[in-house]
């Protein structure tokens, strides 16, 4: 997070969650192999099967290989996809009004989380309560937003200003 703050060149918003307390619900949860860079661009829709396939399991390119190969909490991938939904909602959808983008984001996030929680219900790799799940996701969304800011500062500096601020506002 400090690296993202330096890349932005200004303080992070005051409402940034306390990561340590947000992750308390993960104590005792199993770590698993995870995607590591899960976002909408890592999914392909197969029309004939009416199903999605997830691709590119190499992890985030800036992270060392040893870290990408370690087991982690599944919440990192959940947060990655939620960040991607927020990012897609912020894009200009053929001039559609901001209210449409807001509804699209809220419904996309809700649908994904509801489906995910239903699919993993009772699993030992996710927090058991909605509050603990939401807190962990918020902490990892913050981590993902910080990573994106650092990545863009190094690879697409023109994107850092407005897009970085939009990412942080979405948290």
Describe this structure in words.
The protein is mostly helical. It has helices at residues 2-8, 19-22, 65-69, 75-90, 98-120, 130-155, 160-170; strands spanning 43-46, 51-54. It has a two-stranded antiparallel sheet. Helix 6 (130-155) runs antiparallel to helix 7 (160-170). The model has no long low-confidence stretch (mean pLDDT 84).
List keywords for this structure.
2 strands, 54% helix, mainly alpha, 7 helices, 5% strand, 171 residues, two-stranded antiparallel ribbon
Side-by-side strand order of the widest sheet: 1-2
Low-confidence stretches: none
Number of helices: 7
Task: Look at the structure and give the mean pLDDT.
Answer: 84
Distance between the termini: 14 Å
In N-to-C order, the SSE pattern is HHEEHHHHH
What is the gyration radius calculated from CA atoms?
A: 16 Å
Class from secondary-structure proportions:
mainly alpha
Helix content: 40-55%
Largest sheet: 2 strands, antiparallel
Principal-axes geometry comes out as globular
Strand content bin:
under 5%
The number of distinct β-strands equals: 2
Question: What are the SSEs and their pairings?
Answer:
Layout: H1 2-8, H2 19-22, E1 43-46, E2 51-54, H3 65-69, H4 75-90, H5 98-120, H6 130-155, H7 160-170
Antiparallel strand pairs: 1-2
Helix pairs in contact: 1-6, 4-5, 4-6, 6-7
């Amino acid at each position: 997070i400090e690296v993202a703050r330096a890349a932005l060149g200004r303080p992070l918003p005051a409402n940034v969650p306390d990561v340590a307390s947000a992750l308390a619900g993960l104590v005792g949860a199993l770590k698993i192999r995870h995607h590591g860079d899960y976002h909408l661009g890592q999914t392909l829709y197969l029309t004939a099967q009416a199903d999605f396939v997830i691709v590119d399991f190499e992890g985030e390119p800036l992270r060392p290989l040893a870290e990408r190969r370690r087991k982690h909490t599944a919440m990192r991938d959940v947060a990655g996809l939620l960040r991607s939904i927020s990012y897609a909602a912020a894009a200009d959808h053929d001039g559609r009004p901001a209210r449409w983008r807001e509804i699209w984001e809220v419904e996309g996030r809700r649908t994904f989380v509801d489906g995910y929680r239903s699919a993993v219900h009772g699993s030992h790799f996710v927090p058991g309560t909605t509050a603990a799940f939401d807190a962990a996701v918020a902490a990892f969304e913050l981590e993902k937003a910080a990573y994106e800011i650092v990545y863009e500062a190094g690879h697409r500096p023109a994107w850092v200003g407005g897009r970085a601020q939009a990412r942080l506002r979405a948290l």
